[in-house]
Specification:
Length: 132
């Protein structure tokens, strides 16, 4: 009496169970990957929007009524603009870069530029916070 036929059937059914579990796990991983790729622009834009609004709100409260731009070597500014323009200009530039990101197939370029536009309101704040 040889039980090798019965053990082969048990092994095959166990192998098929493992194979089906692995296939289900692979399907879940692929689904998460596909949705992660589809939502990548929203995930990348969320922190940029958050910090852009946070910096704009801070600048609105802390910048003087007239903001100087283009600091000269003499310690005076070449041009003065209103606080609203100093707050809303960089904010509009950041949102324009994010809009380009959503319209573009290459999301990283305009996203990186939108990260760099966050430095503009900080520079305005630093140059206008300390009087000459």
């Amino acid at each position: 009496m040889d039980n090798s036929g019965a053990s082969v059937k048990r092994t095959e059914t166990g192998f098929h169970k493992v194979k089906s579990v692995v296939a289900k796990i692979n399907k879940v991983i692929n689904t998460v990957g596909v949705w992660g790729f589809r939502l990548r622009k929203f995930v990348m834009a969320a922190p940029v929007v958050y910090y852009a609004l946070k910096i704009a709100n801070y600048n609105k409260a802390h910048l003087p009524e007239q903001v100087g731009i283009s600091l000269q070597s003499t310690g005076e500014f070449a041009q003065m603009i209103s606080r609203d323009m100093a707050v809303n200009g960089p904010l509009a530039l950041t949102f324009a870069c994010l809009l380009l990101m959503f319209c573009s197939r290459k999301a990283m370029y305009s996203w990186a530029i939108s990260i760099f536009t966050l430095a503009l309101p900080l520079v305005l704040l630093l140059t206008n916070a300390y009087p000459a």
